[in-house]
Design a protein that fits this description.
It comes from Microvirga puerhi. The chain has about 260 residues and is α/β, with parallel strands linked by helices. It is built from 9 helices and 10 strands. Helix 2 crosses helix 4 and helix 2 packs parallel to helix 5. It binds adenosine-5'-diphosphate and magnesium ion. Magnesium ion binds next to helix 1. Adenosine-5'-diphosphate binds next to helix 1.
């Protein structure tokens, strides 16, 4: 079960508070979108869930178990960034396989020379290759596994980044504006693909965007944020038809 619970979560950078009093329950398998103007704290919030940024106070649990003490790679979450964060010197295959090779091979088994000598590596690598191939097929990038990221289109890079997140079979996907670097047409197409992926995986998605159309079309629920707080939480229809104030209304673009 991957129910995510945020309790009284707060974050300050030095003396500057950027998030305060964040209480949020995200159901197992839910597609929840955080939306709000630039600088309202969306990225900081999901970076805290990923363990990339320590919270100042409050707690985070997944499946009823506190994850506050866990380091990023120990949390059963995977993050997809706007910038893809692919390694340029590595093939698509190696980029996707990386979380698995890090997990299953020791540092010395990953060194170029030792590679050839390690029998454990010879045992583990075919398994990893099978898993990477299965994910690549799902994302329809199996023909690109030998390429370097520089020779991929924006949409293909985004799929590789997704593949690297999927290969760990996380309980929770965290996505920080994953489509914002794509052109408008591809963005609309990838929206549909992400929604389908969510249907297929039935995993909890916490999705960040400042694009209200994205939020309204893909999400089970939307949390509208402003200045480090959640202003309103509800289904897209609820936010559109019954915005609690003018800020929500104008951001969501509802007629109220
Ligand atoms: P969003 O993703 O909604 O645009 P962010 O979470 O990136 O917002 O930022 C929220 C606020 O925290 C902003 O005012 C930003 O300048 C500030 N902030 C983010 N990261 C840092 C940091 N590492 N150090 C200091 N301030 C930061
Ligand atoms: Mg951001």
């Amino acid at each position: 079960m991957a129910r995510v619970e945020l309790r009284a979560l707060a974050k300050s950078f030095g003396a500057v508070p950027v998030l305060s009093g964040i209480d949020l329950d995200i159901a197992d398998g839910e597609f929840l979108t955080l939306i709000g103007p630039s600088g309202c704290g969306k990225s900081t919030l999901i970076r805290m869930i990923a363990g990339l940024e320590p919270q100042t106070s409050g707690s985070i649990s997944i499946g009823g178990v506190s994850i506050d003490h866990l380091r990023p790679h120990e949390r059963r979450v995977a993050m997809v960034f706007q910038s893809y964060a692919l390694y340029p010197h590595m093939s698509v295959f190696s980029n996707i396989a990386l979380p698995l090779t890090m997990q299953r091979l020791s540092l010395w088994e990953r060194l170029p020379l030792i590679k050839l000598l390690s029998s454990r590596r010879r045992r583990v690598m075919p398994e990893i290759a099978r898993e990477v191939r299965a994910i690549a097929e799902q994302l329809q990038i199996e023909h690109l596994l030998d390429r370097r990221p520089a020779r991929l289109s924006g949409g293909q890079r985004q799929r590789v980044a997704l593949g690297r997140a999927m290969v760990r079979h996380p309980d929770v996907f965290l996505m920080d504006e994953p489509l914002s670097n794509l052109d408008a047409k591809l963005r609309v197409h990838m929206r549909t693909e992400l929604a389908e992926l969510h249907q297929r995986l039935k995993t909890t998605f916490i999705y960040v965007t400042h694009d209200q159309v994205e939020a309204m079309t893909m999400s089970d629920r939307v949390a509208m944020m402003d200045a480090g707080r959640i202003l309103q939480l509800g289904t897209p229809t609820e936010l559109y038809e019954r915005p609690i104030n003018i800020k929500v209304a104008s951001f969501i673009g509802s007629p109220a």
